[in-house]
Every structure is written in structure tokens, then in C-alpha cells.
Amino acid sequence: MDCHCEHCHNVNGSCALYSTQCRGGFRLEGEFCKPENSKPTSVGAIGGGVGAAIAAIIGISVGLWFFRRRINSKNTNRSSDSTELTDISKVQRQVNAHENAVYKDTKANAKIYANTDSDYYSYNEVVPGIKIHLLWDYIREKTKPGSSFFEDEFAKLPAGLIHKHDLAAAVENRGKTRYREMFAYDHSRVPLEKEKPSDSEYINASFIHGFGKVTKFIASQGPTEKMIDDFWRMIWQQRVNKIAMLTNVFEMGTLKCLQYWPEEINGVCTYSGVEIKYTAIEETFDYNIRSFDIRRGKESRRVKQFHFKTWPDKDVPETTWSLVDFWRVVDTTDAANISPIVVHCSAGVGRTGTFIALDVLITQARMEGSIRPLQIVEALRQQRVNMVQTKEQYKYLHEAVAEALLIGTHPVLTRQFASVVDYMMGKERESMTTRLEEQFNLIVKCIQEVPESAEEQSSGPTYGNMETVMSEIHAYRPQLQKRGSKIIQRLGAIFLPTVGNTNALLVCMSPTDQHMEEFWSLVDEHHVTTVISLASPGSATYETCQHLGARGSGRVGQFSVNYLHEKKNKGSVERTFSFRDENHEDEDYLTTIKQFQLTSWLEGHDTPSDMQSFLDLLEEVLKWQPHLSDKRPILIHCQTGFMRCGLTALVLNEIQRIRKENGQINIVVSFKTMKTRCRDLVHNKTQYRFCYEVILAYITNSGTYQNL
Questions:
Q1: Buried b vs exposed e over 673-682: b needs ≥16 C-beta within 10 Å?
Q2: Neighbouring-strand partners of residue 193
Q3: DSSP 33-56
Q4: pLDDT of res. 248
Q5: H or E element, residue 254
Q6: Which residues have C-beta within 8 Å of that of residue 489, sequence separation ≥ 6?
Q7: Domain Tyrosine-protein phosphatase spans what residues (predicted)?
């Protein structure tokens, strides 16, 4: 199609990214300029889903406008401004982004519209959006074997420096850029106020707009020796209270970012007259949250740093939900604050661009009911060089947005959970399945690369040495290092994560007499003191699991196992054992083990027959071992190693989450995280539904957290 726009889009041939102007004799219809005498075509309504009401209003407009707050600085070289009158009933300022002569061949000439009286900002609607409910199917279609769709689309994006960057390239600013040609553009850079003659007004950081919010972010290079003072001067001058750090200080032995905060809690350091006191840290597996009190003169402020630890440079995180959860924490913490959020990695373009693009696309989806990743990434690249740096990051961005919009990683509070369950049990109009069933199907569908199941692993070969075993079994499988050449992985054991821990649960098949020594090796080497037995009455291993080798001599290989006593409850039995490794000469090497055996889960049933006795058993477990820990995992076993173990592990983790995280519930995250390690856990919709129902029963019966 011939382009009759004032500026043509280099990616799809339509009007350029922010252009809504047509040449004489043509009018704008949708994303293209058409002859004024042609018959208009109808414009379809933006689909429902997230933000349908807002989307309907947006659809009435000719297009969304790209606003930019004017950045005033007495000592800043700025591009010339021109004023343009539009049909939006407001005079808006158009900042033309001029290019260096060497970049004149760049086709995409961005128009940036700013209203000096408004903080509103949006991206002009140019390309057709991907409807939210079709997003996962879209991704699967574009990633079929042999498809290069995302690679080809990524290649269409403008690369390298496409706008003026005179100040960044000036002689006095040499050495302030960590990587070659990763400069901040003149039109979008963050200008620093000079506080003394020796101060520089340049820092390698750029204002980046959010969807619907002007200068929501500052994308920054990670501090270096030459910019660390400027970094904290920027934090102070821009009144920043949130920093998202997406790199580690060292990665693969290379310094990626100077540590710009004190080493120890209560430590103090000072940069550019800003005193930084490190006051607290909250640690999770994927990220840490640090609190700083910063002071200059008599004024003090609080800054939170959100440090994502598991994102390799120029690559993507291992999972999508880890980043989505991190984004959610950054987004919801002090959400009312209007100061820019500083986002940095090492260069401030790849990981930084992906994180910011995730935020922009989620907001776009909420407002429009669809997303336009290609346009959004191009818009970001107009503001800072090479944002979203690799094709892998571009593809991952789609998956992370789908994770945020469709999987539902947002936790809910106990007081909200009854209404959530009621909603999930309902159906959409003309649908034959409940929303909960749709959610189950979607999660199962989106897990594509997972470890082998316990059933497949359990049929593996017997190995003769430790090196061979460790090269074959999965990283999440426990190591039995003391057994030497006798090691056999017949119980299909696998670690599962919990809130704040990576390996706090250990699930395996119920042991037979032949595998009892391996069972006690798991207990011994991983310091287990709590065993949950889910073997049903009448099953092949039920009797064996009652005594766990303590009959007769009580010898199980090198272990001595002694049955002490038991307590019968409704639907369960609590037994106490002591055991020791006879190879230890120390008489004090005697461990007490509690076994909690559920007797109310009948053979052939997907879920426990008595929900309350199941909850009572878990309550007793947590009385005996209140804290889940990698150093002392709870061992759960059943006939297959997954059919019953997964359900129990998920519910146990959610009860722990409620207690540990002030009444938060996130069944989806527990389900996805565990199922990624073993795809057979919580293997059908009946079990998945039971997880919702039993957590609701726990909240209702306990009453402890209903006000949270």
C-alpha cells in the first residue's frame, strides 16, 4: 500500500509511530491515509476483557496522543520546538527529534506531543493490537517449530543511535558510558542541575514515558566510578523513591554495576552530599528489597531498592512469573507516589527496556483490551537506544505480558478469597467450562519445558558411581552423597519450592521394603524430621509405611529405626520414631522423626474424603515444624510420588503463605512453580478445584486471618 502520511512507518508502511497527519487530499482512517473521496470503512470496536469500558471511550478518539513533559534546564542544549494545532481541542507541543547527519537514513521519524499543563501520556494507535484472550494462542502459533516470526519482527525495529546525542558524545563526558554507543539522547536525557561549578549536567539516563503517564521512568546505566555521584544527585533532584535494579554487581566474574549503597545494615555512605543509610532488607529467591534513608542537610527521604537477582545479561530470566511478580511488587509499593521510578541494569537498555516495556504493555492492555508490542518497543527506542536489546528479550516480553494478564499472579487477601472462589467457579457467557477450569487449562498449556516427571525418572537405570548419577538426574533431585556406588534413584524424589525457599518440600514415592534404605538416606542426608504419608488404606505400601522399617531388629541397612509411640486422630495417625546412622560413633546422633499418616484419603479418589481431617493433619504438621526451610525439608510421599503429593504440597505452601505474608493467597503461583518442576503434580481439574475449596475452608474455619 502506498503511504500518504506526513511520515511513513518503516515497519509496516502505515503512518509513522506518532504521526496522525496526512498529505493534502487524504484523510486518516485507522492507521492509513486514504483519499478524501473514498468511502469510509467501519472501525471495529476494541474488544472486551480488561478495561473494556475505557477501551470503548478510547475507540471514539481519532487516536491516542504521545505527550511529553517539557524538561526545563538553564544549561541544557535542546532541540527546537514547534507548535502544532490539532483537532483534540488543545494546543499541544510537538518536539521534533532531529537526527545527526550520519543517521539521516532512518525512516522512522518520531513525533512527540507534549502538553505542558498535563501529565497524561499515551502511544498513538497505529498497528492492530493482539486481543488479550488470544495472546497465548498468538504466542504458540508464532513459536511453532521452524517459525522465525519474533526474530523477523524484532529485526524490523530501528537499531543503534537514531537521534541526536551531542552532549553524551562531548569530550567532557567521555568515560561516562560503560558500553560503546550506548548514549542518552539529547531530547530525552535527564538533565542534572549544577550545584557547583565542577558539576556535570549530563548523566547516562533517559526519561521514559509510561502508558498514560509522562516520565514515569528513568532508564539509567548502572553506576560507574565516574557517575556514582551524579547518580545520587539525580535521585535527589528527581525526588526518586523507588529504584528497580535488574543486574547483579558482579556477573560471570565481571563488574556490571558499582555497588552504590553501604555494605552492611545501618551502614552509611555519602555521594554528592547525599547521605545514604542502609536500614533494612527483605530477601526472596528472585529479588531483594532494600530500604535506604537518604539525607541532605535537614531534609530526609526514604528510598526502596528492588533488586532482581536472577536475570542474566542479554538473556531472559528462567521463568516469566518471577519477573511478573517482581514487577507487581515494584508497581504496587507506594503506588500513589508520582516521582519517576529509576530502572537500571548494566547498560540500561536490554533488561531495563524489557522491564519498562512490560509495564507499558500491561497498562495498555488494561486500557485498550489489547497490546501492540512492536509499536511499544519502537516507541521506547525513540526515547533511549536499543531498548529491549535482543530477540530473546522481545519474545520473552510477549510471554511475560501473557503471564501477567492471563495467569493471574496477583495475590489476593483472605478477606477477598470467598468472592474470588465464587467468581472462579462461575462461567463466562456461552462457555461450557468454569473460569477455574479455563485457568487450569491455560497454566497447563503455557508450561512447555519442564523437568521429567517422577514416574519417568523412577524407571531410570541404576548407576555405579556418583559422577554418572549427577550428570543424569535433574538439578531439582536430591543428592545422596554418602551412599557412594550403592546410590539408586528409585523413589523419584524431587524438591519443591515454597514461600521464600527453593527446596523446602521433598516429594517421593512411598517406599517398599526394598527401597526403605533409600528412603532413610533421604531423611538422613537432608535432615528431615517431618514425614507426611499419603498411602491409602489397602494400598500395597500402606503397611510398610506404618512402621517404616522399625519392625523386628529395626535395622534398615546402616540405619537403626525405632518406633516410639503413636496418637490416633480423626482421619489420621501421628507416629514418633527415632533413628540414627550406625556409622556415627557419636551417641548423641539420634534424631526424632514425626510421621503424619492420613487415613481418610481412600484408594481411587483424587482428593481426600474428609477435608477437615486433611486440614487438621496439616495443622499438626505445622505445630511440629512451624517453619518450612531448605535446611530441613518436609518429606511427603504417596504411591506415585506425585498424584497426592502435589496437592498436599500446594495446600501446605498456601497455608504457610497466609501465615507468613499477612494473609496473602496465590494458588496460581504455587501451582505453576511446582508444576514446572514436575508436570504430574496436581494432575487434574478436580484436584485444582480442591485446592481452592480447602484454602477457603481453612480461612473460614480458623477465622484467624479473615480481617486481613
A1: bbbbbbbbbb
A2: none
A3: EEETTSPPPP-PPPPSSTTHHHHH
A4: 96
A5: strand 254-255
A6: 457, 458, 460, 463, 469, 473, 477, 518
A7: 150-404, 436-698
The answer to whether the CB of 258 falls within 8 A of the CB of 228 is yes
Answer yes or no: are the C-beta atoms of 256 and 222 closer than 8 Å: yes
Q: For residue 277, what is the enclosing H or E element?
A: strand 274-283
Give SS3 for 647.
Answer: helix
- Angle at Cα 28 formed by Cα 23 and Cα 34, nearest 5°? 70
d(CA 659, CA 646): 20
CA angle (613 as vertex; 611, 615 as ends), nearest 5:
70
SS3 of residue 649 by DSSP: helix
Active site positions, annotated: 345
Q: To 10 degrees, what angle do helices 645-660 and 685-702 make?
A: 40
**Among 509, 494, 454, 519, residue whose Cα is nearest residue 639:** 509
- Label each residue of 376-424 as H, E or C: HHHHHHHHCCCCCCCHHHHHHHHHHHHHHHHHCCCCEEHHHHHHHHHHH
Residue ranges for the chain with pLDDT beneath 70: 1-127, 407-410, 448-474, 482-489, 552-553, 585-588, 703-708
pLDDT, one tens digit per residue, over 252-301 is: 999 999 999 999 999 999 999 999 999 999 998 889 999 999 999 999 99
Query: Three-state SS string across 498-554, please?
Result: ECCEEEEEEEEECCCHHHHHHHHHHHHHCCCCEEEECCCCCCCCHHHHHHCCCCCCC
Q: What is the pLDDT of residues 593-623, one digit of tens each?
A: 999 999 999 988 999 999 999 999 999 999 9
- Distance, in Å, from the CA atom of 476 to the CA atom of 457, rounded to the nearest integer, reads 12
In whole angstroms, give the CA distance from residue 193 to residue 176: 17
Q: How far apart are CA 652 and CA 504, in angstroms?
A: 11
pLDDT at residue number 403: 82
- CA 696 to CA 656: how far, in whole Å? 14
C-alpha–C-alpha distance, residues 618 and 701, integer Å:
14
Cell output for 405: 494478564
pLDDT of residue 43: 30
- The Cα–Cα gap between 350 and 314 comes to 6
Q: Is 281 helix (H, G, I), strand (E, B) or coil?
A: strand
Beta-strand ranges (E) seen in 122-185 are 130-131
